[in-house]
Amino acid sequence: MTPTTNDHAPGIYVGPDPDDRLEAAVREGGGQVVGPDEAVGVVFHSAADDPAESVGLVTDRTRWVQLPHAGVERWTSNGLITTDPVWTSAAGAYGPQVAEHAFALMLAGARRLQAAARAQTWDRQPGRMFMGSTVALVGYGGIGRCLLPMLEPFHCRVLAVTDSGPVDGVERTVSRSDYRDVLPEADYVVLLAALTPQTQGMIGAAELDLMRDDAWLINVGRGGLIDTDALVDALRGGRIGGAALDVTDPEPLPDGHPLWTEPNALITPHVANPKDAHDAALAQRVTDNVRRFVNGEPLLGVIDPEAGF
Known about the structure:
The chain is α/β, with parallel strands linked by helices. It folds into 2 domains: 11-92 and 275-295, 3-Layer(aba) Sandwich (Rossmann fold); 95-267, Rossmann fold (3-Layer(aba) Sandwich), CATH 3.40.50. Helices cover 29% and strands 15% of the residues. It contains 10 helices and 12 strands. It has a 7-stranded parallel sheet. Strands 2-1-3-4-5 form a 5-stranded parallel sheet, with helices on one face. It is elongated and about 65 Å long. Mean pLDDT is 95; it is low at 1-5.
């Protein structure tokens, strides 16, 4: 049952345009929906496409801002995020659906479904078993935590790259500065990292050369993690087995780009987080964070402006 708000409930603005679902989520968390001039909290939804314009809705009264995205590089790169007010992202909220997509891309690569889908004749493309594969998770947050149990029934050997300390359930954890160490071992390199100045182009020609010639590169993080030209060269030269990408650089991937016709590339157009699942997960995150805000508890997904995520 949705709680009845009162005059003592903190005022939360939802914008830049009205959104019935998120306004209901604010009330469910114990807040009341108000205009931007009265708000102590601001919830942006996916219509907030212009960070510089949207940030004008944050006033001197604002104590907390909720962004709708897990990746916030468009905001941090412009220096728009500060520690006062507190800014939160949707990091972790979309983990189940994006992990499911990453898992599907790995299986598609193993069974060469991209080649079968393009075939115009009965030409068998040899695939391989996914069971027992070595999977490197480059970045380990909400998506990684959801993906790891999906790999367990397949008896995968999992390597994690994170600065958050040892990860339970994986064979080995390495720091972000040592991510190259896992590349030669992996059948599947899964990019889950946030896009920051430090991770921009983290997979370039040198890193691709470290990968096995039958390994697949999976990207459900951000397109800018990969040097696209270097990837095209590696695919054309047979230096890696394939690439399955839900995000690209540039994005959208232009018509006629060589990745579209590369036989060992599988492209999905940034659909790992389907709209219905996205909207439900964002509403739940808003409810959870409004409730925490009302009760003075730590918020979920607090952004570190210096780290960029």
